[in-house]
Write a structure and sequence with these properties.
A: 45 residues; alpha+beta; B: alpha+beta; six-stranded antiparallel beta sheet
Amino acid sequence: LPTPEDFVKDIDNGIDQDIFDINQDLGLDLFEGDIRVDGAQDRNS
Amino acid sequence: IIGDNYRWPHTIPYVLDDTLEMNAKGVILEAFERYRLKTCIDFKPWAGEPNYVLVFKGSGCWSSVGNRHFGKQELSIGTNCDRIATVQHEFLHALGFWHEQSRSDRDDYVMIVWDRIQSGREHNFNMYNDTVSDSLNVPYDYTSVMHYSKTAFQNGTEPTIVTRISDFEDVIGQRMDFSDYDLLKLNRLYNCSSSLTFMDSCNFELENVCGMIQSSEDDLDWQRVSQVSGGPENDHSIMGQCKGSGFFMHFDSSSVDTETIARLESRLLYPKRGFQCLEFYLYNSRNENEQLNIYVRDYSADDQNGSLNIVTEIKEIPIGSWQLYYVTLQATNKFRVVFEGLSIAGASSGGLSIDDINLSETRCPHHVWHIENFTQFIGNPNGSLYSPPFYSSKGYAFQIYLDLKSLTNVGIYFHLISGANDDELEWPCPWQQVTMTLLDQNPDIRQRMSNQRSVTTDPSMIDDNGNYFWDKPSKVGQVAFFPNGTQFHRSGGYGTSVFITQERLKSRDFMKGNDVYILLTMEDISHLSSTNPVPTSSVNDLCSEVTCENDGICTVQNDKAECRCPAGKDWWYMGERCEKKGSVRDTIVIAASSIAAVFGLMLIVTLVSVYCVRRKYRKKTSSNTVKTSMENSYAF
């Protein structure tokens, strides 16, 4: 018997988030999206 | 990035920080295995080397580019970053790679649509000239795991990157595995000529059949053919798509009227790790009595001819289609793999065929879910597929659910189900990592871009009803039935609705001959709960009493907690708790002071000696003068 839709937990909540989307959602503004520059995590800082 | 100082040694020291999620730790180790298989880059737990990578759970997924000689170089695998291709991507940054679309010739291949980029995020589309970044004579790569996807940093719904060849618009941004060009560049940059775990791959296209030999201890030979009248009609490598190519090995037992064997032996192989995974496709065109035996011919130091050891007997081989098989080997000496076709007398024609052999020093998947006639399920409202039940090595029963109903994405979920061992098992099920892999059936294991996701059972996880999510299925699951009518319980599924897009599923060799393979592994990763080294309860207890200062890490050696202290090129920490700092400068100062002190001492000794000698001679001279004077006075 098929399992009801709500009987599964989707760890991605239906969205295929790329690395850059994940970082943006966290409010990060890293250099080129995911590069740490010489110890400074934030490009602006 | 140009500059030798950015390179790491071929074996990169690493630390998996305790902040990492359990699933992430397992995924990182899997990513290291892909590096070991496809490149010459290896990883080892940090043992005090000057520079190492600290993988930790920071905010987001990020890395530095190249070896920055920080001593401890951080690489973050944060929430939702625990995907194998994301880890591969971040480590490629650490190894010295920028993003693919930042290379100097990118405008020849993609258009950056600046007015579709979020304001202030234009810096994400930098381009480096060829004095900063070298593409190592490798063509622009739309399939790179380092390429942005078309939606990166968009301010609306329109793509920010438009490929000049439109077919590649949905190809860019793949997060499955290294592309062929990723590997070419990495292997050029690090002068790789071999890998740690790859051993052999053979699709029998060349007449030398990869150095395989016909045994002299059998009745018949295997034949290299491109088709057989009773089947298969074509090979598995290219499915007969090219006339004049597409070969496989066939053992024709149609004329056999007694029990007959034919042995095909691989070339000599030299193991490094002591465990191997043999993978091959097998076709049975005769009857269910056909059998394939796998042996290892083991050449120990005192056995020059090699002794033949049976590994497995493959029986009940389905008739009329290529089937994928995995066999685990444990060779520690020089060895050959032996394929022995065994045919029992019978009236029917046909025989056994093998193709697309891969041998690597990796772990085989625990289970294979073979889905035939796959296309009929894609985008079908009835496209809910459940795998057969499988058991993990610990005894947990589970099932995989593949959701093909969507028109865009494919979902995959892991379910615990009720099983025969449930009363003896620990509940809620603790720290079992399930790895689900959609196999790219490229004949060469090194060129595959298989799509993989892992999930881990957290025993403390609660569902919406307040129950433990991973509790016993008979307690928290729902009633379900197998096709034969047997009733069982199935717990809630855990996985992703965006495992792969349908477009990607139809690309490469995910579907071959309308067959799809999902490889499954379920293993206990509770030993990863604490790291450095692999923990036991005593390790935790011993280290809990020790605090290492200055980023030192506690390890247990000979049942004693010790601090491993960080060190740089010209500095180091020392002492029982890494509390003292030393540096090359200190040593130079000490050496210079010592030399100065010795010089000073020698000078004083010399001066005193000179003074004493002069004084002695002066005395002697004055006494001689008196005597002379007396002599003279006497003489004159």
